[in-house]
Amino acid sequence: MSMLTHHFDGSLRSADRKSGIKIITAKLRLPTIKGLCLGTLAIVSAGGLVAGLIALRTAIYLSRLHY
After folding, report:
1. From CA 53, how far away is CA 45, in angstroms rounded?
2. What is the tens place of the pLDDT at every residue in 50-65?
């Protein structure tokens, strides 16, 4: 059986094919990484906005108590 399929092994293990697979994998992962980074940026921005609102409300509350 190996006599019939020996040419398939060479094409699967060649250096060109491995580098091609790495390039394709990198291209497929890039949108995933960008999406993850944009999602993280949105979460951090929302957290900063909430923290800013809490600080503003606290400042207004404390200014009314004359501290």
Report:
1. 12
2. 999 999 999 999 988 8
User: What is the C-alpha separation between 46 and 38, in angstroms, rounded?
Assistant: 12
Cα–Cα distance, 22 to 29 (Å, whole number): 10
Cα distance between residue 22 and residue 13, in whole Å: 13
Q: Dihedral sign, CA of 7, 10, 16, 18?
A: positive
- pTM of the predicted structure, to 2 decimals: 0.55
Dist CA 37 CA 39 (whole Å): 5
The beta strand positions in the chain, using DSSP E, are none
